Amino acid sequence: MTKYFEDFQAGDVLESRGRTITEGDIMNFAGLTGDFTELHTNADFAAKGPFGQRIAHGLLVLSIATGLVIQMNLLTDSIVAFYGIENLRFTRPVLIGDTVHVMKKVSEVLERGAGRGVVTFATTVLNQRNEPVLVFSDKLVIKRRPA
């Protein structure tokens, strides 16, 4: 069910379902972006690195988190624009086989004209142990409810 600007209040929490990260995800992302950094794509190289194995690209995790939020169908008819992202931090590696989900907490709601407003979220991507792997603040421009 679509949420409109008026439906958001500071303190609201939204949580997505989970998604398991696969080797295919990593290799497809590398092919799509051209980022073949060996930490992500070379098992022998990564085994000698700080994590002992390949890890997912941070931007892959961010992209999957975006998709998980979209799949919640909360903004299908009300999203105007992705306005920005701040304080993005990758706090833990995401390994092949990890399952991530997204928790978004509304931190600010600002009116921006008659037809829309900006909602700021404190967003955390968590792994299957509920450990944060990615944290950031993001802003969405959201329509007001139609009259």
Overview of this structure, please?
The protein has a single domain (5-143), classed as Thiol Ester Dehydrase, Chain A, CATH 3.10.129.10. The chain is 22% helix and 36% strand. It has 4 helices and 6 strands. The chain has helices spanning 23-33, 38-41, 43-47, 58-70; strands at 13-15, 19-20, 79-90, 99-111, 116-126, 132-143. Strands 1, 2, 3, 4, 5 and 6 form a 6-stranded antiparallel sheet that branches.
What key attributes describe this structure?
alpha+beta, 147 residues, 4 helices, six-stranded antiparallel sheet, elongated, single chain, Thiol Ester Dehydrase, Chain A
Question: Would you state the CATH class?
Answer: Alpha Beta
Radius of gyration: 17 Å
Mean pLDDT: 97
User: Which CATH architecture?
Assistant: Roll
The tally of structural domains comes to 1
Terminal residue distance: 17 Å
Number of strands: 6
> What about the largest sheet?
6 strands, antiparallel
Poorly predicted regions are none
Number of helices: 4
Q: What coarse outline follows from CA principal-axis ratios?
A: elongated
Structural class: alpha+beta
Approximately how much helix is present in the residues? 10-25%
CATH superfamily: Hotdog Thioesterase
What is the helix/strand order? EEHHHHEEEE
CATH topology heading: Thiol Ester Dehydrase, Chain A
Strand content: 35-45%
